[in-house]
Amino acid sequence: MDLQSRPLDDVIDRLSGPTLDREKVSELVGIVSKSLGDTRLRPFPKGIPWPDGIIIHTVIEPEKLPNIFELLRTSGHIDSVRVFPRGIINPEIFVAEIEMS
Amino acid sequence: MPGSAARLMPDPGAAMAESFDRRQRILQIHPSLRCNLSCGHCYSESGPSAALELDREVAAAAIADAARLGYRTLAVSGGEPLLYRELPYLLAVARDAGMTTTMTTNGLLLRQPRAEAVLDRLDGVAISLDGPPEIHDRIRGREGAFASIEPATEMLKDRGLPFGFISTLTATNWHHLRWLVEFAVERGASLLQIHPLELIGRARIDMTDEEPPQAALGQAFLLVTLLRVKYAGQLTIGFDALLRDQILADPEAVYAGAEVPEGNAADLLGLLVVEADGAAVPISYGFSRRLAVGDLSRESLADSFGRWRNGAYLEYRALCRRVFAEIESRPEDQLVNWHERIVAASRRSELAVV
Q1: How confident is the model over B12-60, as pLDDT tens digits?
Q2: Is A1 on the interface with B (CB under 8 A)?
Q3: Does B97 touch chain A (CB under 8 A)?
Q4: Hey, are the CB atoms on A41 and B216 less than 8 Å from each other?
């Protein structure tokens, strides 16, 4: 596995496991919500695939997503997730150390 | 160029701009409720014994009208669309009208010879996938259902036809989101779209304990966000729930703006659904017939929409504003499946009238 992507994988593994405390999840969702700013996510009703997603193969402003880690880092309210970015340039070369309790 | 993404990609800039259009401009058609599976979460309660089918000329006229009214995409669902024999004809009508064509399928019949004529007229295919093999087969109600997916995706790749997966998120399978994403990337899919389970149709009976609670929805949303970072540029991951903050910041995205917009039908109503009995309803399958656009077996879509615009459309928007107010009053619900909410509210309004 790519060493640089390991911290991100750790968080994904942790979030894939048992359900976290609802308040903690709520706080994290709030942080992500802020980090997305004016990004418009497009939900679809049941049974309809997102045509742009399936055909044109675009992504929703991925450059905004690494900001989530910066917000997590600077949030004084999150005790269980600590993220230490070492220089976020783009998602592929994101480097961070994450400690979860 | 049947089956080619290039037809749709002359101007990537325009494509990106379109992706941020507030209205999706999609006509969804359920031509039949007949299906070779009886999935536990099926919102339309489709199955092998369902006989109802949309008349092909009614459907063709609706597609042609919809294109003139500003709808750009035809999305075919069901039932299993590949069991509807007139599908190649309908897709050809849509293509001739300049629409993009997509189909949502369970994938079991994709490699049958009769699927050829359908695939030739599609711009994208979405295959339903509910998790690793044992979970997928359990929800689909058929052992071995998963086994058809890998060869189907190989065939689609060989044809150069873009494809993705649509996955229903339940209270138990959300732990497998990472597996779903990795599987989608490995198979060469363009899209993985995650749709939270809705307790309607067969799910009301078979999956009552499976609706993801708000905490699970939140954790799944976080996972999707991180997986988007990890797989940026490789896979588009859609999540069919809106952040409450996004809704409050842009009421018109959920038809709750103060001003009624001007424009063509697709500007006023971004999602139009034609059900197997010919009813045209707003937004999503199962919307209250009281607010239906019309019965297309009796009147054309163009005529129906003209009348709806000047009557029930205002009532529809009033309903959207009531749902908006409900969302505003519940800050604890950070993630909202707005489509489910509005359909449920339309049903409640039906009861209130009775």
Answers
A1: 333 333 334 678 899 999 999 999 988 888 888 999 999 899 999 999 9
A2: no
A3: no
A4: no
Q: Evaluate if residue A10 carries a pLDDT over 80.
A: no
Q: Is A85 domain-assigned?
A: yes
CB B16 within 8 A of CB B64: no
The alpha carbon of residue A88 is apart from the nearest alpha carbon of chain B, in Å, by 12
Taking alpha carbons only, the member of B307, B301, B317, B303 closest to residue B269 is B317
Q: Give the C-alpha separation, B211 to B30, whole Å.
A: 24
| A45 domain residue, yes or no | no
CB-side neighbour CA atoms (13 Å) of B217: 21
Which candidate from A19, A22, A50 shows the least CB-CB separation from B238? A50
Q: Rounded to a whole number, what is the distance in angstroms from the first to the last CA of chain B?
A: 51
Q: How far apart are CA B140 and CA B151, in angstroms?
A: 18
CA-closest candidate to residue B12, choices A54, A40, A58, A49: A58
Cis, peptide link before residue B188, omega less than 30° from 0: no
ipTM over 0.90: no
B310: number of Cβ within 10 Å: 9
Residue B288 has pLDDT above 70, yes or no: yes
Counting the structural domains of chain A, the total is 1
Report the residue count for chain B.
Answer: 354
Instruction: Write the residue in B193, B232, B284 that is nearest to A50 by C-beta.
Output: B193
**Residue A14 domain flag:** yes
Interface test with chain B among A56, A78, A90, by most B beta carbons within 10 Å: A56
Q: What residue numbers bound the domain in which A28 lies?
A: 3-39+50-100
Could you report the per-residue pLDDT of B71-116, keeping only the tens digit for each?
999 999 989 999 999 999 999 999 999 999 999 999 999 999 999 9
Q: Are B167 and B131 a contacting pair, CB within 8 Å?
A: yes
Q: Could you say which DSSP state residue B47 is in?
A: B
Q: Which of residues 248-307 of B touch A (CB under 8 A)?
A: 249-250, 253, 271, 273, 283-285
Cβ(B179)–Cβ(A12) under 8 Å?
no
Domains of chain B: 22-353 (3.20.20.70)
Whether A21 is in a domain gets the answer: yes
Residue A101 touches partner B, C-beta closer than 8 Å: no
